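Hi W.,

Here's what went into the run:
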Amino acid sequence: MSALPVPSRRQEDWRYSDIEAVASVWPLPEPTAITVGEGEEAAHLLLQDAADGSVAVHDYVIDVAAGGNCIFHLLNIGGKLGRVTFRVTLGKGAHFGLHGAMIGGGTQTLEIITSVTHAEPDGTSEQVIRSILGEKAVGSYLGRIEVARHAQKTDASQSVKAMLLDRTATANAKPELEIYADDVKCAHGCAVGELDKQALFYMASRGMEPRAAQSLLLRAFVAGVFDGIADEEDRQRFESAALAKLDALAHRGDAGGEGA
Amino acid sequence: MSLLNIENLSNAIGDKAILKGLSLSINAGEIHAIMGPNGAGKSTLAYTLGGRPGYDVTGGSVEFDGKDLLELEPHERAAAGLFLGFQYPVEIPGVSNLQFLRESLNNQRKARGQEALSGGEFIRLAKEKAGLLSLDMEMLKRPVNVGFSGGEKKRNEMVQMGILDPKLAILDETDSGLDIDALRVVGHGINSIMRKPDKAVLLITHYQRLLDYVQPDFVHVLAAGRIVKSGGPELALELEREGYAHIVEAEGASA
Ligand SMILES: Nc1ncnc2c1ncn2[C@@H]1O[C@H](COP(=O)(O)OP(=O)(O)OP(=O)(O)O)[C@@H](O)[C@H]1O
Ligand SMILES: [Mg+2]
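Here's what came out:
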């Protein structure tokens, strides 16, 4: 149990969080530890679909030893606050992959917060995050990457894209790089967009109903995030949970986002 | 009875007036061609008939197959039998052509009170139309228009037309970007899909070459937002020889 005071928004990791919701479950339990041994491979999953109005905070501390490989698939869609954090340390030539999607509506606050430390040379990390936010939902990704002084040949990438269904929804994406080594590749891309209006008209001109068109475009947007889940049943569980959440979002506002 | 009857149509994009009292009537069984200078409003006419958001109708009326076209949403216009061949077909990453077309066709069929096609029936139909346009079936498994060459996009538009089987096709520069062989294939495709007594085509083009394959019954000149001259197929040849300047002047298009 943590004896720390309830965090405030002045703290970097909490700047977009729902502090009131956090306070209601404070203190948080100890984080879940995942240790991947030398040359081992590990695949983990979290489907965070807590009940409406509840508070779900999941913290992971992940250590990947030399030559190890850890892949994490995450679907973050439940609760009034759904917060998932990762503190990852990579050994020599180790790999960490995070493939995550957040889908939120109402007044949900969804967060994915990562801190990946490349402590030794030749490590690689890849983070792909897709968010779809409607109504007054807030979706945030804070991704810190630290590359130690001697961790040469590190290759770290972050690809973060958010789609806003309503003007009232908010997406925050904040990559933060602290690089002390000089021979390092760090690629990050962030984009916030709306559904492609040209594509929507093209689809309508072929007879597709607005709702069907919107749903196809949204599926296409998150498709791929869960392709890497090895177990067929798990993959389908993630995909159908994502689709069900998308459908719920699309049907709530009724007529699908036609600009005047 | 006319399939499409446009009377005095005016429109604006933002506060810029583009179409300025355009009238045109097309009967079932006819093929019409519209030619005209760049920026005349040809694509604007196509988009306005398709109901593209932002293309506001400011006056006039359009009747299509007995319905008030302007009352319908874009997808309802398609279900009523209108097809738009785009001058610049849109790319849709992550959505395959087959998925896109099956959903479109079945949405149209639902709107008309028809049964949805099964997966097998749909694939058979798609294969037939892709074959007609010499488009590799493998391409239809790829995302809509993504990575297609200019000519492939135009052939794909025609495959879509074949599958959706509209009553009226408005084809905006479907011939641009096609090589000589593809032009012939597309021309024959248009004829075999659309040259029927109960269908009609409005071809928007700059050149005679497509009209060699798809012979029009009527040719119109659109300039400054209106039809300024109409004639038979010989008008296209005259335009190709002499350009637009003398017609546009003689007909006082600047009004
Ligand atoms: N979105 C827009 N906003 C403002 N003006 C526009 C817009 N789209 C078209 N226009 C203008 O409307 C006029 C007609 O354009 P349109 O594309 O219909 O011409 P066109 O006859 O199809 O030309 P082309 O032969 O070059 O294809 C042009 O002056 C163009 O600049
Ligand atoms: Mg044009």
